[in-house]
Design brief:
Strand content: 15-25%
Bound molecules: ligand L263DTV3
Protein name: Trehalose 6-phosphate phosphatase
Shape: globular
Helix content: 25-40%
Radius of gyration: 21 Å
Number of helices: 11
InterPro entries: HAD-like_sf (IPR036412), HAD-SF_hydro_IIB (IPR006379), HAD_sf (IPR023214), OTSB-like (IPR044651), Trehalose_PPase (IPR003337)
EC number: 3.1.3.12
Keywords: Hydrolase, Stress response
Order of helices and strands: EEHHEEHHEHEHEEEEHEEHEEHEHEEH
Pfam family, one: Trehalose_PPase
Distance between the termini: 48 Å
Strand order of the largest sheet: 9-10-8-7-6-5-15-16-17
Structural class: alpha/beta
Amino acid sequence: MEKSNHSSPVLTDPITVNNSRLGIHSNLLSYQQSGGSLPSGKYMTIPRKKPGKLEDVLSNGWLEAMRSSSPPRKKLIKHKDFNIDAAADDFDIAYCSWMIKFPSALKSFDQISKNAKNKKIAVFLDYDGTLSPIVDDPDRAFMSVSMRSAVRDVAKYFPTAIISGRSRDKVYELVGLTELYYAGSHGMDIMGPVSHADSDDHPNCIRSTDQQGKEVNLFQPAKEFIPMIDEVFKTLVENTKDIKGAKVENHKFCTSVHYRNLEEKNWPIIAQRVHDILKDYPRLRLTHGRKVLEIRPVIDWNKGKAVEFLLESLGLSDRDDVLPIYIGDDRTDEDAFKVFRESNLGYGILVSSVPKESKAFFSLKDPSEVEKFLKALVTWKQLEEKLHTKI
Ligand SMILES: O=P(O)(O)OC[C@H]1O[C@H](O[C@H]2O[C@H](CO)[C@@H](O)[C@H](O)[C@H]2O)[C@H](O)[C@@H](O)[C@@H]1O
């Protein structure tokens, strides 16, 4: 049953004008926030336009963003004079000063746990690059047995959700834990608890049941885009099939084009093909992930909004006694970090072994440090509970 007493996150302002400065449709700018109204029947026709010029992807910054989307990882060693890690080649000043700005969540654990005392922690976890290491084949991005057990333990003590760019079904298949909440497609597909809170009355929120038959809320704010995404996915597959190493994924509410396995000389080609297709879809926009171009609906919804939605569903929003923690490695996780920073609400933890601009408060180097941090949270909670039972 669909409900309609909230405003829809689908933006309705049509954006059809050209961006004069860059010479491209403004709807093609990454992170562009406005939407476009859809001419009727438009998204059922596969666009067959003349390909654009390579200058398109050069001038609008796509290529630059692609090059910086996943910088090569550096080999790290311990530096004897500093209690932080440093680059092996010559001691990397940039990395050290970055670590001062984004201290290790492990080394700052006392500070974090002090602040968490008497508070209810909620844990939000990104999947790729956070729970599983980045690998060449997205279908083989498995999490380790020990990571799965760490996440399972965390979920015993704290409400825990996975917020991924992948489809919800796919990320559930990879994580395989029934005790968590899952938000797929960058938060555009949330299976959360039934709470009778305001979030239940959101448009596009329906009552459903999960794999175990438990009653859940299913929130899909970009439902109307499913046929369009499917159509674009098929076009992308067709138009990139001659590019060696290209891989396109359909996440139902968004679609991804991977260029990790392409020779760098072919990056402009794949970027231009995606650009040409997107020209015909003013209601879709592009965002950049780690060696992946992500095509998603122009709606006012992202991982940050998904976190807010889940907190509300869990009855944990607008409370001083709640400390949400979000761990993620990607640009799309920045939306969640931003929510925490702006509201001074919780801790964003960026997973990165290289300096990166971020709205997070802390950092962890890689998934193995994420696992240590999750285990530390559980150990701390167990001790807290023991102390309480003794009192
Ligand atoms: O939000 P996430 O859970 O981090 O998902 C973001 C994207 O993750 C996957 O791609 C990334 O990981 C792959 C496996 O390690 C890697 O090959 C790829 O280069 C990375 O971009 C996933 O395949 C994408 O669809 C997600 O959007």
